[in-house]
Amino acid sequence: MGSSRELAIGPVAVVSLLLSAMVSKLVDPSLDSAGYTRLVLTVTFFTGLFQAIFGLFRLGFLIDFLSHAAIVGFMGGAAIVIGLQQLKGLLGLDHFTTNTDVVSVLAAVAKGLSHKEWYPMNFAIGGSFLLFILATRFLGKKHRKFFWFPAMAPLFSVIISTVIVYLTRADRHGVKIVKHFKGGLNPISIHQLNFGGEFIGETAKIGLICALIALTEAIAVGRSFAAMKGYHLDGNKEMVAMGFMNVVGSFTSCYTATGSFSRTAVNYSAGCETVVSNIVMAVTVLITLLLFTKLMYFTPLAILASIILSALPGLIDVHEAYNIWKVDKLDFLVCIAAFFGVLFGSVEIGLLLAVGISLGKIIVRSIKPSIEEVGRLPETDIFCNIQQYPQLATKPPPPILPIRVNSAAICFANANFITQRIVSFLSQRISAMEEELPSSSPLDVDNGRRRRIIAMLILDITCVMDVDMSGLHAMEELHKDLKSRGVQLVVANPRWEVMTKMKAAKVVDKIGPEWFFVSVADAVDFASLTLKFNNSC
């Protein structure tokens, strides 16, 4: 149902972390494994339901609230938390915390080490194979023809470590092993979905968070490879596909799956052209469940921890965080908030902080838009910011002041701020020009009174897409204020939506239809001719 040809579907580290971290707070899996399983399946159902709804109602824009900076920070914090939680398997600890913040995890590790509850053989096995996996990954990056080597390294590690533990019977000497787990076909699990328990609200919330994170990762990965192949990825189709997949998965004992970057990269490198590659992967997993589960009895937990740890460096992108710092300090604040929120709080706190600060940044920029003076490029009708192009400022300044409002809307939230900034800008400009002109200049005197230094203010509202009643009243008040100062308001390039509302509110009639122009150049030319005519008269 999706539009991506390369996207490889399956469990991913971040979503697995979300499920483990948040569901464990509701039900401890070591005390009630059946209840824990029911909640995980229910969360998977809600995840798929939300994803399908997002796609069917074309709500893909919701994912954009998780900005790039927020995802970088979230991934980094989640990677560290995941890594610290793997210390339980790597050290062979029997008791561990279910909390996900770094303080609780480190305290649990310190407690286990101080009470000598850990087993060095687990660390030796996990550490050695971790180095092996990282070495193969380095080799794969250096020599592209060996791309398959790092992809196969985790499988080799599982097989070799399992054989070693079986031959040496290391499980009798403190090495923690997987032991028996149920193989065969996934049983139907519709009857395990729990929609009436005490945790239904929390379950739905976890499902929503997982839906957003899973979609963000899948669509980002899919778009990356679609761009490489030169085709367009339909985000809404991907949402519908992911949603139905996870809903059906919750009916068949599966937990939340999404697009994996590492698997997709291997898929792409192997030459896949269609989604049939996912069928091949599914069949391979099915055969393993049917035939090979008994062979995994002696698989050490430390090797599973080392495989997860080997995937974490790719989630911590220090270079990208540095680039965010160089480009936008507020974006970096979002990144850091997500990072520390996940690290010292929880996944929910990290995401809420990141989204909250991102929305706050948007609100601040929308209610306090910039006002800039513009000047004409020589021999063109193009007007640009004179702070960016100082050579456009004319000396001496003419009695016409063209300024631009950089806001998508003039509304209740920013209307007063915009008008105050315009009036303040005008006053500052007049004061500066008065200081430059000599008081005895004949050009500065008109029948014993100082000539109006600024006669016309041209308001370029090219960027303004909409205006509400507060904005219309503000425009009317601005016109009155400027008129009392002897300055004519001229409006340039209003959008048809804005012009329609200004006509309906009689603002056009109050300012004067003759003072509305389709471009700043036309407004400046007409104003210049008008002033010359008035002066000659």
Would you kindly provide a written description of the structure presented here, covering whatever features stand out?
The chain is elongated. The chain is built from 20 helices and twelve strands. Strand 3 and strand 4 (383-385) form a beta hairpin. Mean pLDDT is 85; it is low at 440-451. The strands form four sheets. It has a six-stranded mixed β-sheet with strand order 4-3-5-9-11-12. The protein has helices at residues 13-26, 33-56, 68-85, 87-91, 102-114, 120-142, 148-168, 200-229, 235-251, 261-269, 276-291, 301-311, 318-327, 329-344, 347-367, 415-436, 469-484, 496-504, 507-511, 520-536, and strands at residues 9-10, 258-259, 370-376, 383-385, 400-406, 409-410, 445-446, 449-450, 456-460, 466-467, 488-492, 516-517. The termini are far apart. By secondary structure, it is α/β, with parallel strands linked by helices. Helix 2 (33-56) crosses helix 8 (200-229), helix 8 crosses helix 9 and helix 8 (200-229) runs parallel beside helix 10 (261-269). It folds into two domains: 9-181 and 190-363, no CATH class; 368-536, Transcription Regulator spoIIAA, CATH 3.30.750.
Salient structural properties:
single chain; 537 residues; alpha/beta; Transcription Regulator spoIIAA; 2 domains; six-stranded mixed β-sheet; 20 helices; 59% helix; elongated
Protein topology:
Layout: E1 9-10, H1 13-26, H2 33-56, H3 68-85, H4 87-91, H5 102-114, H6 120-142, H7 148-168, H8 200-229, H9 235-251, E2 258-259, H10 261-269, H11 276-291, H12 301-311, H13 318-327, H14 329-344, H15 347-367, E3 370-376, E4 383-385, E5 400-406, E6 409-410, H16 415-436, E7 445-446, E8 449-450, E9 456-460, E10 466-467, H17 469-484, E11 488-492, H18 496-504, H19 507-511, E12 516-517, H20 520-536
Parallel strand pairs: 5-9, 6-10, 9-11, 11-12
Antiparallel strand pairs: 1-2, 3-4, 3-5, 7-8
Helix pairs in contact: 1-2, 1-8, 2-8, 2-9, 3-13, 3-14, 6-7, 6-12, 8-9, 8-10, 13-14, 14-15, 16-17
